[in-house]
Design goal:
With about 325 residues, the chain is an alpha+beta fold. The protein has 3 domains: about 140 residues, Nucleoside Triphosphate Pyrophosphohydrolase; about 30 residues, no CATH class; about 150 residues, Nucleoside Triphosphate Pyrophosphohydrolase, CATH 3.90.79. Helix content is about 25%, strand content about 30%. The chain has 7 helices and 18 strands. Strands 11, 12, 13, 14, 15 and 16 form a 6-stranded mixed β-sheet that branches. A 4-stranded mixed β-sheet has the order 4-1-6-5, with helices on both faces. It has a 3-stranded antiparallel β-sheet with strand order 3-2-7. It is globular, with a radius of gyration of 22 Å. It binds zinc ion. The site of zinc ion has 8 residues, from loops.
């Protein structure tokens, strides 16, 4: 493995891909329309988002993908369509809906480009998409049904009828790598996934439940395993549309109890470290595959592929392999 590859892995293990963020959210400006208008007029950088959450991208001089941000003077957006993202290096950043597509642009989605982006751009687009997804789904007051208005530079919506204020929601989800004492981890696959794709287990936190409680419940429900030593590892926003993935490692009490529920989890199996290294092409970035042993094959398919590096699932696996 080259020095570059080693450095890339170490960097990837430090922060989940979409948790990298370097801009100042500068929330004090959200309620200052004069400041926001002046910033827009003087020349801000604007991240355009299509209805499908795709955005213009380009290659930089080194061949890396970066966001093709637009100068605000060239962007057609009313003040209430401009989401103030923050400031960095003396520049002001907004997001706005794309009303038309310039033919000269290439458009792409966060899932495709996330790992290629700089820390600054990764932070900007993750916030922008999370907010845009929330606005798209929360157009009316949950109390009285009146259409709400965008306020605080895109960070709240306010009901003109009862004046109630509504904030962007973030849904907590837990994601957990379950291991035994012999260097194996359990991976499962959902029937809706592409052939051969396996990942660590995950689920939403329910009202009245702690994060650790959700880890234990989801794993027991999905594959029948009881856990101990539930340990927090890292978290990552996952704006598809509104999750915060909270990642854990946990140790199984009895590995022989593995019994996928057959509904949410179609198949689950124990994988050794060597199998995971091959499946993930340890050090590489492509979604690699290995031929899974017969007891791990789904009907008609013999491959096991790990999630890509944009996911915190992969970080949980890579961190465990690095231990
Ligand atoms: Zn209302």
């Amino acid at each position: 493995m080259s020095e570059d590859e080693t450095a890339a892995i170490e960097a990837a293990l430090e922060f989940p891909t979409l948790s990298r963020t370097t801009h100042d959210r500068a929330a004090q400006h959200r309620e200052d329309p004069d400041w926001l208008e002046l910033a827009w007029e003087e020349g801000a950088e604007v991240l355009l988002l299509g209805r499908d959450m795709s955005t213009p991208v380009r290659e930089d001089l080194d061949g890396n993908i970066e966001l093709a941000l637009k100068p605000s003077r060239r962007v057609d957006a009313f003040p209430d369509e401009r989401t103030f993202l923050g400031e960095a290096d003396g520049k002001v950043y907004f997001a706005a809906p794309a009303k038309r597509r310039d033919d000269t642009d290439t458009w792409s989605g966060l899932r495709s480009i996330g790992t290629s982006l700089s820390d600054l751009h990764a932070g900007l687009i993750t916030s922008a998409i999370g907010l845009a997804e929330w606005h798209a789904r929360h157009t009316h007051c949950p109390r009285c049904g009146t259409p709400t208005e965008v306020t605080k530079a895109g960070w709240t919506r306010t009901c003109p009828s009862d004046r109630s204020e509504h904030f962007p929601r973030t849904d907590a989800a837990v994601i957990m790598l379950v291991h035994d004492d012999e260097g194996r981890v359990v991976l499962g696959r959902q029937s809706s996934w592409g052939a051969g794709r396996y990942s660590v287990l995950a689920g939403f936190v329910e009202p009245g439940e702690s994060l650790e409680g959700a880890v234990a419940r989801e794993v027991f429900e999905e594959v029948g395993l009881q856990l101990t030593d539930i340990k927090y590892i890292a978290s990552q926003p996952w704006p598809f549309p509104a999750s915060l993935m909270v990642g854990f490692h946990a140790r199984v009490v009895d590995p022989n109890a593995l019994a996928p529920d057959g509904k949410e989890i179609e198949q689950a199996a124990w994988f050794t470290k060597d199998e995971l290294r091959i499946a993930g092409q340890w050090g590489g970035d492509s979604p690699a595959s290995i031929a899974a042993p017969p007891d791990r094959q789904r009907p008609g398919g013999g491959l096991a592929a790990l999630p890509g590096r944009i996911s915190i699932a992969r970080l949980l696996i890579d961190k465990w392999l690095a231990e």
